[in-house]
């Protein structure tokens, strides 16, 4: 009996002295994603999907993504479902990615409309949502650590430069009366609220004489333009998605109405697509955001803008395919942030991933600009200057006009 007891103690001591083996590395890292292959969200979703896919394919071709907890490269299994621009479908598929596919990394669809349904689901399941470009300010709060915005500044700061530009340069050009037209969704609705606040600050020389929201599905602005004209604004600020911009700018051309300044969001973000649908004449002179498709930001991870554009052409050479634009960069940038997260995380636990992303803030520069997060996970870097489109012998070009320290030209206002 004593001998057996001594042997048991010895075995226990040996077991305690033996170092624990690390958890075996998985055969794959499962990245779950939603995209809109059709419907109203497809124009921004498919370029982002294709951009993310370039990162996945390049990473797998190099042996996989390096994952620090396992100290090795692991192949990516990319699972992306088509939500068809339908929030109800996106709800079902987000749940499927979490509960059935058991993904390691959850990536939302592009834009605020489809991201909105994934935010509460991810939070409920305590799954970190890698938010590509859902910028609605309501998504981010101090009590929700399960979301980070990767490749777009939060909507509440997007229009700051626009407001500052109007207040600084508008009065001298005769711009004091502004019409604000926006689509009623989280992305542009938040921008409208922020812009309204910036322009109504004490001492502002700018007066909003028309302020109207319209459904995101709006495809005809003829009556709206008539109502805007009756308010006699000097500038019209139209905040909408790609389809809204196309419909608005076509109707503006048809109306023959002119204003000293017209601003739209996607004329500078998805310029190729708008050029195809609106034409150079309809874009020339427009003011817009100067997105990273126009600026060669210095990078410390991933490809430069020129390298990525070349990779895009090689990956998608067919005529009539998805246009290269800002959302192409959004998708690729999202992959780069995920890559650096996995390379620096202490574990694959979701809050460990969140900490790893937060620790990248202010330390990561991509072709989309400087990556900076606030404490809620909202992106406050990657801010876009204000520019003006024009036509030269090579096609459309953009001149940065604000902030003044970044400007490479002066604005030209209408009469």
Please give a handful of descriptors for the protein shown:
415 residues, alpha/beta, Rossmann fold, 2 domains, five-stranded parallel sheet, four-stranded parallel sheet, globular, disordered N terminus
Please write out the topology:
Layout: H1 2-17, E1 29-35, H2 42-61, E2 65-67, E3 72-74, E4 76-82, H3 87-99, E5 105-107, H4 111-124, E6 129-131, E7 147-149, H5 160-169, E8 177-183, H6 186-199, E9 207-214, H7 222-230, E10 235-239, H8 242-255, E11 261-264, H9 271-278, H10 280-283, E12 287-289, H11 305-315, H12 326-344, H13 350-360, E13 364-366, E14 369-371, E15 386-392, E16 395-402
Helix pairs in contact: 2-12, 3-4, 5-6, 8-9, 12-13
What would your notes on this structure say?
With 415 residues, the chain is α/β, with parallel strands linked by helices. The protein has 2 domains: 29-154 and 296-371, Response regulator (Rossmann fold); 160-294 and 385-406, Rossmann fold. Helix content is 39%, strand content 19%. α2 (42-61) crosses α12 (326-344) and α3 runs parallel beside α4 (111-124). Mean pLDDT is 92; it is low at 1-6 and 8-21.
């Amino acid at each position: 009996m004593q001998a057996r007891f001594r042997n048991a103690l010895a075995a226990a001591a040996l077991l305690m002295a033996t170092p624990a083996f690390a958890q075996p590395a998985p055969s794959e890292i499962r990245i779950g994603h939603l995209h809109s292959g059709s419907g109203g969200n497809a124009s921004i979703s498919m370029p982002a999907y294709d951009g993310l896919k370039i990162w996945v394919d390049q990473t797998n071709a190099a042996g996989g993504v390096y994952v620090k907890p396992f100290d090795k490269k692991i192949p990516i299994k990319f699972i992306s479902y088509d939500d068809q621009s339908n929030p109800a479908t996106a709800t079902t598929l987000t749940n499927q990615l979490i509960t059935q596919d058991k993904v390691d990394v959850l990536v939302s669809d592009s834009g605020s409309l489809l991201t909105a349904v994934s935010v509460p689901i991810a939070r409920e399941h305590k799954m970190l949502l890698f938010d590509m470009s859902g910028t609605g300010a309501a998504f981010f709060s101090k009590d929700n650590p399960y979301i980070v915005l990767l490749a777009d500044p939060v909507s509440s700061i997007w229009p700051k430069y626009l407001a500052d530009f109007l207040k600084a340069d508008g009065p001298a050009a005769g711009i004091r009366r502004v019409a604000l037209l926006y689509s009623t969704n989280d992305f542009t609705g938040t921008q409208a609220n922020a812009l309204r606040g910036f322009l109504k600050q004490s001492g502002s020389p700018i007066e909003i004489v028309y302020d109207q929201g319209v459904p995101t599905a709006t495809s005809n602005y003829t009556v709206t333009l008539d109502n805007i004209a009756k308010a006699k604004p000097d500038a019209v600020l139209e905040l909408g998605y790609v389809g809204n911009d196309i419909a608005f700018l076509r109707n503006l051309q048809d109306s023959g109405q002119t204003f000293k300044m017209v601003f739209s969001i996607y004329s500078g973000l998805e310029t190729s697509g708008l050029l195809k649908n609106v034409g150079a004449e309809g874009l020339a002179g427009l003011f817009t955001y100067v997105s990273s498709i126009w600026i060669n930001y210095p990078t410390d991870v991933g490809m430069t803008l020129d390298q990525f554009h070349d990779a895009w052409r090689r990956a998608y050479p067919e005529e009539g395919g998805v246009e290269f634009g800002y959302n192409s960069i959004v998708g690729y940038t999202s992959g780069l942030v995920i890559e650096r997260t996995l390379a620096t995380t202490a574990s694959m636990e979701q809050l460990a991933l969140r900490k790893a992303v937060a620790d990248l803030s202010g330390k990561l520069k991509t072709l989309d600009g400087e990556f900076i997060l606030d404490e809620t996970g909202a992106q406050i870097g990657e801010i876009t200057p204000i520019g003006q489109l024009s036509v030269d012998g090579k096609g459309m070009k953009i001149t940065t006009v604000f902030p003044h320290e970044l400007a490479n030209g002066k604005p030209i206002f209408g009469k």
